[in-house]
Design brief:
By secondary structure, this protein is an alpha/beta fold. About 40% of the residues lie in helices and about 10% in strands.
């Protein structure tokens, strides 16, 4: 077991879990240490929207009591976690980063939260995000931006920047995100953490406030591949309450992370996800990592996925179309914000005033795009055509995976940019997800893991691994091997190099 010397908040989740088993530390001590860390740094990071101090301490004490009584507990029992504020939790505010849900306290737990509770994981609080998960920088939150712990003037990625920043700032050893077009992987890349988008349907969406129902997928986030695998195993599996949930055995992601061996694997280098538009330092670190995979015994070949070039355009028709439908429920009548209800206005006027006040500019932009794309006379030209492109992208993946075991690319074209640099340029913002979007359109599994710092700015770079549906274990096999090789090179985990807050 790794030593427990040093600050509790800087330990891996697996190390903390083993230390509790061996009686070196209690869950309450670990939880208090993380709550203290949040209190000391989150005024600068703003990773959290709601901190559940009393509930977290109570949960930790219950884990300690059950452990002392000799009960059999899960492998992550007593370890703290940060939860993206798009998943419902009974009685706890769920805002999705939007004013339109102010004051709403859900009467039920999402399936992800149920499984976290069943595994005795301690939930520290809810993390900040782009409003309704629409964004790549966590600047579109109604409650202010989250800051990247590597450089507080820079973005932590989005939409799940709060969860990634909480990990990078050592405010939590585990986190949950959701990924619709890269919202787990892109924040992981720019904060030097690990994030996984499971196979679509591999983790239940019940209790996830929907953005785009055919694209959304909850997933695990952590600072190491093994910690991410342990969390993945907790939250994955069939759920009859989610009609898109897959009836299949969860791949052995923990065993794959432990094996961490790429000998004999064929790895495809995607020609269309690199080159022009990618920062020089991102390309350099990516090429070095590909060379390491070759040295570890993998065969690396170039693969072409020609329809990937249309993915961004197709995505920004499909997602807004589904969002315009899903967000129609936020009308000021049933829950959350209600504006102008003074008895003198019609229901329609109250709805209009509520949406005007409650939705931010990016949400309004995407609703309008989606409504237009679905409108009479334009459906086939826009939404219908985008779905055809989606089919072509899926076929590209299918053809590629007939020849290789996994595909790799940079996760994001650049390192973290400065807060404010792209917030007024939607297209520039959307281009941050150019490498991650194809996976969501096809429903495949993908991981981002840190591969070093870009030489020109000293900020983290991420590598993306993509696998076929329900082959999530391949992500952990490749990711674990590459992570171990990079740790040997650096002598430490990348996240340990993050600037002190």
């Amino acid at each position: 077991m790794a030593t427990m010397d040093g600050d509790l908040v800087r330990q891996d989740a697996s190390v903390l879990a083993q230390a509790m088993v061996e009686g070196e530390v209690s869950s309450e001590e670990i939880t208090r240490a993380h709550l203290d860390r949040i209190a000391s740094v989150d005024d600068r990071v703003h990773a959290f929207l709601h901190v559940l101090s009393d509930d977290a301490i109570s949960s930790a004490r219950e884990v300690d009591r059950r452990r002392a009584a000799g009960e059999r507990l899960g492998p992550l029992a007593g370890v703290p976690l940060a939860l993206k504020d798009v998943l419902t939790m009974t009685g706890v505010p769920t805002t999705c980063g939007s004013r339109v849900l102010e004051g709403w306290r859900p009467p039920y737990d999402s399936t992800v939260v149920e499984r976290l509770r069943s595994a005795d994981i301690v939930i520290l609080g809810k993390t900040n995000m782009d409003e309704f998960a629409m964004g790549s920088s966590t600047e579109h939150s109604a409650y202010g931006p989250t800051h990247n712990p590597w450089d507080l003037e820079r973005i932590p990625g989005g939409s799940g920047g709060g969860s990634a920043a909480a990990l990078a700032a050592f405010e939590a050893p585990l986190a949950i995100g959701t990924d619709t077009g890269g919202s787990i992987r892109q924040p992981a890349a720019v904060t030097g953490t690990v994030g996984v988008k499971p196979t679509y349907g591999g983790v239940s969406r019940y209790g996830l406030v929907a953005l785009a129902s055919s694209l959304d997928q909850p997933g695990p986030c952590a600072r190491t591949v093994m910690d991410t695998a342990l969390l993945h195993a907790v939250i994955a599996g069939h759920d009859p309450r989610d009609s898109t949930s897959i009836r299949a055995e969860v791949p052995d992601v923990v065993g794959a992370a432990r094996a961490a061996d790429v000998r004999g694997m064929r790895i495809g280098l995607v020609r269309e996800l690199g080159g022009e538009g990618y920062q020089a330092g991102v390309r350099q670190r990516f090429e070095e990592s590909v060379a390491i995979l070759t040295d570890l015994g993998a065969e690396v070949v170039e693969v072409s996925c020609p329809n990937f070039e249309y993915a961004l355009a197709a995505y920004y028709l499909i997602l807004p179309s589904e969002a315009s439908s899903n967000l129609a429920r936020f009308d000021g009548m049933r829950y959350g914000l209600r504006e102008g209800d003074d008895g003198s206005r019609s229901v329609e006027e109250v709805m209009a005033l509520t949406r005007e006040a409650g939705f931010g500019a990016e949400v309004k932009r995407r609703i309008m795009i989606g409504t237009y794309a679905l409108s009479s006379g334009y459906y086939d030209a826009y939404y219908g055509s985008a779905q055809k492109v989606r089919t072509l992208i899926t076929r590209d993946f299918t053809a590629a995976f007939e020849d290789v075991d996994v595909l790799v690319s940079p996760t994001a074209p650049t390192t973290a940019f400065k807060i404010g640099d792209k917030v007024d340029d939607p297209l520039a913002m959307y281009l941050n997800d150019i490498a991650t979007i194809p996976v969501n359109l096809a429903g495949n599994a993908a991981m981002s893991l840190p591969i070093g710092l870009a030489p020109e700015d000293g900020l983290p770079v991420g590598l993306q691994i993509m696998a076929p549906p329900m082959a999530d274990d391949r992500l952990y096999r490749v990711g674990g091997a590459l992570e171990a090789a990079l740790v040997d090179r650096w002598g430490h985990q990348l996240i340990e190099e993050a600037p002190q807050l």
